[in-house]
Amino acid sequence: MVQPTASGTPADDSSLILASTSPYRRELLARLGLPFAAVGPHIDETRREGEPAEAMVRRLASEKARAVAAQHPSAWVIGSDQCAVLDDTVLGKPGTHERAFAQLRSASGRSVAFHTGLCLMCIEKGFERTVEVPFTVRFRHLDDAEIEHYLAKEKPYDCAGSFKSEGLGIALFEALEGNDPSALIGLPLIALCTLLREAGLDPLG
Description:
Elements: E1 16-18, H1 23-30, E2 36-38, H2 53-69, E3 76-86, E4 89-91, H3 97-107, E5 111-122, E6 127-139, H4 144-154, E7 173-177, H5 181-185, H6 189-198
Parallel strand pairs: 1-2, 1-3
Antiparallel strand pairs: 3-4, 3-5, 5-6, 6-7
Helix pairs in contact: 3-4
């Protein structure tokens, strides 16, 4: 069943639907002021053997959108997926304090590349666009006490890379490099607005 938005607006097959249960993505999409519902896509998010990070996030964004669009063929459905890469290693959501500490210690003084896939789809209209938005975070040299203090304050255990850039995590960085800071949080709004305009759903229209 499609869940109502925070404002209580129910979804129907002409609605905008976010194929995600992420509170961060819901908060980002709400910034555009468009009524929407959020629906979990329930897909297998396993990375394929040898699959590049950029290809993986594009594929998963499309699969998430398609899983929800199949149940709501007249709806405009947004799918998004993100991964963080340090050297050739994909950093998942840490889940625990120990893993988060290890991720941040490994990232200290180095750059982590974030790849965010975005898909907008409407089956009935034959519309599907998928893009990938890159973003790079350069970490300061962090000592163990700083890492422990940060984790105790923000507990970012459900965030790839073990930080929340919209919160205290900004204090971990030396620089942010990219065209769309919202991509770092999980939903690239600049790219999304471009796709929405192409679909005739201009947030400023």
